[in-house]
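The instructor's notes for this session suggest beginning with a concrete chain rather than abstract definitions. Hand out the sequence below and ask the class to guess, before any prediction is shown, which regions might be ordered.
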Amino acid sequence: MINSFRLSQALIVKNEEDNIERALSWGRSFLDEQIVVDTGSTDRTVEIAKRCGAAVYHFDWVNDFSAAKNFALEKCTGDWIFFLDADEYLEPADPIQIKKALQNAAAQGANSISCTLVNLSDTMEELDQAVLIRILKNEPGLHYYYPIHEQILFPSGLKTYNAAELLTIKHTGYTREAIINKDKTRRNLEIINHYLAQNPNDYVMISYLADEYRSVQDYRAAVSSYYSAIEKMPDSLSADSQRAIYTFCYLMEILVTLYTASEKDTQLQNLAKDISIQAEQILDLYQTASTVFPKEASFDYWIGYFYYKKNLFRDAISAFQQTLAKLTAHPNALGQINQNFIGKINALLGDSFFHIKDYEHALEFSVKALSLEPYNPMAGTVLLSVGSALIRQKAATLDQFLPIVTGLYSLQNTKNLLFLHHIASGISFKEFEQKILSYFTEEERAFVFHK
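After discussion, reveal the predicted structure:
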């Protein structure tokens, strides 16, 4: 029990022997019950789940995740239910943070809690993030609908507390290896297409169809489906229509990525030509999306990135500053770009200012970025490039510049030294490179030169 709240965990699983133990371990010490609904595993999933102490129930699979989740809801007795997939886990699993989220949600009269979801690559590097509902108040009449990418329905209406800054879930299920191993895309497409055959104008499910194409980099099909979803959206959308927001976000992301692809990436360049992506198309989409959802920062980010990649740095600066302003004014934004991107946006601003030789602002934003992400390579490069430029112009000396660096980094830390040396070497900032080398021990210096 967390404070006065009983907390249940519920999982829908099939052949998850590689994930089930981790899925049941992260919160075992403070969860009141763990409910596992198995839909037909032929591996050791059920055995492991029982060994971990979970209550395991069997459900005959009917190609409908909502049906399985609604069955799980019937088994949960907690005041709140933590609904995760087997390939998701809370990190860190901090009961104090969960308690704070539950208390805040209860105080605000919320019946659901959203968390940050981080999608991980095969090498466990971050791919992207989203803010999604993962904790539900166990109210009478609560149920799911849609056979896949299930939506929540509370009879009293959905009231969500945003705990994105408190709770982070790591998700390994959409790495390319996991997609191949589980054939999730084929399964998902089958379920979605079956639903759309009966409900062809449902923009939400058309958008999820586009997501499936995006996940396997079938960008042609994804673009077509996202536009189809937009065409079928109702004339009036509420500010919390998250699926509509993500439809615009993901479409902008793909169009900008393809249109600004480098000459080395001929496959993406050719695809952009085949789809006939035009700059005006991207600008029109930005205008439409930002008109429908004026508080959403994601669209300003993507138009800023479009300008940045096209070397239109003054336009990029304006768009990125607008992104930060919206994230500050609306910290609980529902879209793709959220508080976790502030470091990256500051780095892009720093680099944009550097390109127009505004070294004062380049320094300001690179320092802001590095205070949030100490090993951000772009921000580190801008920081040292500004220092190099100022010293070449005799506007500063190395001794005057060094305190800016030491305000961010301890030069007694080997990782910091390696990072700074690598950046300095890459931009041929010889004077600073030699200075950093002087802080290495003999053994460390030998290692650096050996490499």
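Then share the key points. Residues 249 and 298 are 6 Å apart (CA to CA). The first strand starts at residue 7 and ends at 13.
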